[in-house]
Amino acid sequence: MADQVEVFYDGDCPLCMKEIRMLMRRDRSNNNIRFTNIAAADFNAADYGRTYPDLMKKIQGRLPDGTWIEGVEVFRHLYAAIGFRKLVAVSRAPGIAQLLGLGYTIFAKNRLRFTGRCEPDGQCKVPKVPARGMHATNN
User: Fold this and answer.
1) Sequence-ordered strand ranges (E) for the chain
2) Measured between alpha carbons, how far is 113 from 32 in angstroms, rounded to an integer?
3) Which residue segment(s) compose the domain that 17 sits in?
4) Does 44 fall in a domain?
5) C-alpha closest to that of 45 among 105, 109, 128
6) What integer pLDDT is reported at residue 113 of this predicted model?
7) Does residue 23 fall inside a structural domain?
8) pLDDT at residue 130 in the model
9) Distance between CA atoms of 89 and 84, rounded to whole angstroms?
10) Does residue 137 fall inside a structural domain?
């Protein structure tokens, strides 16, 4: 089906999980979205040819043909998969597309801070491995 997409999301991100839970509810009967939690104990980024820090930088998705997408484009595919095609069309309009891209870039760069996952000294480093201690590569 053209609407199928796999989304790689940070299950330790409270804001991200609100969106993911909404998508799961709306996709329950269609199964157009495959949900892959990069914070899960059994997740290994190397199985996908990626690194954990790269997956933590921006939301990423994979289409049925193996094409990788990221950022706002992932959300467009997710929303199309749950039937929000008109919203997706609006998101591509000149001006709106740029604003969404800018807004997501700001969110992605500050996601750890926005979700209270920085060190007390203000350092917000992406962990080299998922929070539950699994490795991100086969090293």
Assistant:
1) 5-9, 33-37, 60-62, 68-70
2) 31
3) 5-114
4) yes
5) 128
6) 72
7) yes
8) 54
9) 9
10) no
Ordered per-residue pLDDT tens for the chain, 139 residues:
456 999 999 998 888 899 999 999 999 988 999 999 999 999 999 999 999 989 989 999 999 999 999 999 999 999 999 999 999 999 999 999 999 999 999 988 887 776 766 666 656 665 555 554 443 333 3
Contact 40, 68 (CB under 8 A): no
pTM as predicted = 0.82
Count of the separate structural domains present in the chain: 1
Site of tokens 């799961």 = 24
Report the alpha-carbon distance of residue 30 to residue 28 in Å, rounded.
6
What is the Cα–Cα distance from 129 to 54, expressed in whole angstroms?
11
What's the token pair of residue 22? Answer: 């909404």
Kindly state whether residue 71 falls inside one of the protein's structural domains. yes
The three-class DSSP label of residue 32 is coil
